[in-house]
Amino acid sequence: MKLTIIGCWGGYPKANEASAGYLLEHDGFKLMIDFGSGVLAKLPNYVAPGALDALVLSHYHPDHVADIGVLQHARLIQGFLGKKPPQLPIYGHTQDKHEFERLTYKKITKGVGYNPNQKLEVGPFTINFTLGAHPVPCYAMRIEADGKSLVYTGDTSFKEEFVPFAANADLLLSECNFYGDQDGKGAGHMNSLDNGRLARGAQVKQLVMTHLPHYGELEKLVSEASAEYDGLIALAREGLVITL
Fold it and tell me: What helix, strand, coil percent values describe the chain, rounded to 5?
């Protein structure tokens, strides 16, 4: 599996960058995980929008889904230009009917509801879900292919249930919207110490911190997490590629 960070900012994009969006590739299959603000403008640096095979969404907050509408238009216009891509499946939970229905657009995209209590097969990937602690329903994902595993927390405050869910993952892609001296529970987010505790408890091989805050010295997040976890830690950034 190859993961490419397209966007990594929490809430809204940093100037000239993007909020949540992650490209996961395996055996030629291209899966986007979330598709927030600014992602479509950055995506063509890595893959053509018409070349995506599927999207899977953690939840429907704008910083995770804002660019789905313009992705739909991009694929529509490519069809007018003679490069019509196939209908794109967008997998999302069905607990917000209004937002889920927006995933289907003409014959360009098709919303496909996933059952978070069952595994989902998408191309070469097997995805399992667990509910996070966030103001709206948001699901973490464990994505596996050919014996490798990636766990993406989505947006959530710390939950003990995440430790067995992420156990022995090759990569933990974890939201980190707060510094260690801040309590993110009320907002439904983790801080750097939560990240370190989760990575240590789950004994993951490496931790990449994402959904980053727009203030402070970001490297401090790494040093704080390293007080809890002595494995490999990196901050997400646009263009970062990790091959598992």
Answer: 25, 30, 45
Q: CATH classification of 2-243 is 3.60.15.10, yes or no?
A: yes
* Phi then psi dihedrals of residue 149, to 5 deg: -140, 140
Q: Render pLDDT for 142-171 as a digit per residue (tens, 0 to 9).
A: 999 999 999 999 999 999 999 999 999 999
Task: Note the pTM of the prediction, 2 decimals.
Answer: 0.97
Per-residue pLDDT tens over the stretch 102-144: 999 999 999 999 999 999 999 999 999 999 999 999 999 999 9
Nearest-10 Cα torsion for 213, 216, 217, 219: -30
Query: Dihedral through CA 62, CA 128, CA 148, CA 86, nearest 10?
Result: -60
Give yes or no for residue 83 having a pLDDT over 90: no
Distance CA 99, CA 237 (A): 28
CB burial of residue 17 (10 Å; 0-12, 13-18, 19+): middle
Helical spans, DSSP H, in the chain:
39-42, 62-65, 68-80, 97-101, 162-165, 192-202, 219-226
Of 57, 62, 50, 55, which Cα lies nearest the Cα of 24? 55
Two tokens at 239?
A: 């263009």
* Token pair in block for residue 222: 């790494």
Distance CA 184, CA 196 (A): 15
Assign residue 69 a region (left: φ > 0; alpha: ψ between -120 and 50; beta: otherwise). alpha
Span 8-38, pLDDT tens digits: 999 999 999 999 999 999 999 999 999 999 9
